[in-house]
């Protein structure tokens, strides 16, 4: 028989969005349990670009200092069309605070949040997988599998993950912050609408001579339909992403990286050293049809995903987790229902506008066809979310119609 337990809020997914949601809930003295089917935080050095509103949020939560110590501040995004610089987005000149992005390792952010949760008396339940979820309006009931490693094989043993225990958890609310393939969303039966065909990328994170790296984010768009992005990172590291016409098997080596840079951005070849990691990935822009069902809610990539250039989906997800936690303050009475309704309406509306690009299409009249055809890429490269993103995109489109005025 499965053991039973209760909590006020069960958060599924211990990535950045789930961690920040749980931390804000604890700051509101709400009992929270956080589970993840993984072993621990992300093991690779995946670089994140944290937008100014995200940095303000992390400062409010008291977890920004280690990131500022280790991260790299970037104040400019530079757009190139067919090798020619055509637009500069300057955060320092925008008037917002702080006037920069912070590029930091995802693991560093997660460790800071895990430590902050530990001081609040919350430890992450690693190796715990959501199996079933029943979510009427009043409260939810989740079945959770506790996983463990056992040795298998004869002679040369191997480790296999197996279920060691099963638990039934009752919660007033379940929050799914469990990413693109969200188990919570699937168990709730909430479909996700795909807006465009999946886009394939080859991604490389590589050590390079620091003096050969730019101090800005660079986006390269080709009129023939290709795109590439160069992010400088702390410690003489950079990340390159190249759009591929199809997912093809390739040896992702430094030689392959040099070949792709030569094809997409020959004037931006850094002095490359050791390859840290590389992967072929695919992004499908999607939006869940609803953010909740009954007593369960979604945040972050469980709701939405867009192209990865400026890490918009994660930055938006961190803000959503915080907003959702604030709306779940049990002491607000009927106001709580209104806050949750606002969360659903605002988040869904913002992402529907962004993924459809409908607010921007009228402004593209007179824009270079090569740029108009790559509008989704251009918008995805801007370091903003929500209404500020739409405003920044309009300003960019206006400037691109007058390229001589904006080098």
Describe this structure in words.
This protein has helices spanning 16-27, 52-61, 65-70, 106-119, 183-188, 254-264, 312-327, 334-356, 369-372, 375-380, 386-400, and strands spanning 3-12, 32-36, 47-50, 72-74, 76-81, 84-90, 101-105, 125-126, 128-134, 140-152, 158-176, 192-194, 199-208, 217-221, 227-233, 237-244, 272-283, 286-288, 292-293, 296-298, 304-305. It has 407 residues and is α+β, with helices and mostly antiparallel strands. The protein has a domain at 3-61 and 107-194 and 286-353: FAD/NAD(P)-binding domain. The strands form 4 sheets. Strands 1, 2, 8, 9, 10, 11, 19 and 20 form an 8-stranded mixed sheet that branches. Helix 1 (16-27) runs parallel beside helix 4. The longest helix is centred in the last third of the chain and has 23 residues, at 334-356.
Low-confidence stretches: none
Report how far apart the termini are: 68 Å
CATH architecture of one domain: 3-Layer(bba) Sandwich
How many helices does DSSP assign? 11
CATH superfamily of one domain: FAD/NAD(P)-binding domain
Strand content: 25-35%
Number of strands: 21
Radius of gyration from the alpha-carbon trace, in angstroms: 22 Å
The third-level CATH topology of one domain is: FAD/NAD(P)-binding domain
The chain-level structural class is alpha+beta
pLDDT averaged over residues: 91
Helix content: 25-40%
> What's the CATH class label of one domain?
Alpha Beta
